[in-house]
UniProtKB/TrEMBL annotation:
Residues covered by the AAA+ ATPase domain: 42-207
Residues spanning the membrane: none
InterPro entries: AAA+_ATPase (IPR003593), AAA_22 (IPR049945), ExeA_AAA_ATPase_DNA-bind (IPR052026), P-loop_NTPase (IPR027417), XrtA-assoc_ATPase-like (IPR017466)
GO molecular function: ATP hydrolysis activity
Entries under PANTHER family matching the protein: GENERAL SECRETION PATHWAY PROTEIN A-RELATED, PHOSPHORIBULOKINASE _ URIDINE KINASE FAMILY
Protein name: Putative secretion ATPase (PEP-CTERM system associated)
Origin species: Plasticicumulans acidivorans
Amino acid sequence: MYTQYYGFSAKPFQLSPDPRFFFGSSGHKRALAYLRYGLSQGEGFIVVTGGIGTGKTTLVRSLFAELDPTRVVAAQLVTTQLEADDLLRMVVASFGLAHESVSKASLLKYFEDYLRSCARDGRRVLLIVDEAQNLPPRSLEELRMLSNFQVGEKPLLQSFLLGQEEFRSTLASPGLEQLRQRVIASCHLSPLTAEETRRYIEHRLQVVGWKGNPAFTDGAFAAIHDFTRGVPRRINVFCDRVLLHGFLEEAAEFNEDVVLATRREFGQEVGAPSVAAAAPTMSLAPRTAAVPAAAAVAVPSEPIIDERLERIERAVNGLLLAQSSGGSQEEIGRRLSELEPTVAALKEGFVRLTEVLEHLNGAQRSTH
């Protein structure tokens, strides 16, 4: 739709992580430098923290794009509240090893043999643990124990721990002193500043061939930052809608009024309360007053939508890692099956959203 209308080669604000779109804000550049240093050491843990949608996965994928896939085998583990034994089983499964109806001793033996085999072939093994803030201390200790595998003085496994902001507090707990001593590099990603938000939008547009059409005014950039709070994923979702709005209105320039119009449309879909909180100057009272209470509370909230988008991003990222590191068909099939619950949840959400929009339209007609 709008990609052809504006002459883009692809969607500039896609949600799936793509190293081409990596934007080096001051924070992200610093983080990438720390990660490169940590990766060059070939051992220990590298920790990346940040709020939902701040670009943790994109940062790691940008780093991995620099690696030789014939010399590195990587697997991603998306964690929930996994206890130590379950975590070990999931780690082994992530590398395509036998794990069903197997004792813990056998799991450890299989994994150690696998690590040694990769070392003999000259391949490094990386484990990416996403949503690390969900892991209890005993499970984190299990990850530390896995880092003990080595040949001579050479460690056989290096781990990336990606987590939300609360993971920093978890790491600071007294019982994880040994794990902290093995963290060789860490970084925390913060939202973009107003100026960085502008450059981030321009960068992604330029990647797909933007030549100034459509044009963005200073007021438009400021309004986008105000609404998204500088969170990259929110910027992507919202700017995609701004471009769609511009296509439907045949707009060649986006000013503050266009952004505010998109905010109003967006607010009707993701729930008026969260939009009102993000934009205190915009009143939604006339529209929401006539909406039935059941409809008003049925809309997925902004945090829930963020979580669903993050689940999709993690699942797709795991699938891409499995493919790029030569994963088996069984492993790739398992990765695809992990997407099914999220897709089902999204389908259910769209059904609910349609019902709510019908209520909103009916309520709006009744006021005229």
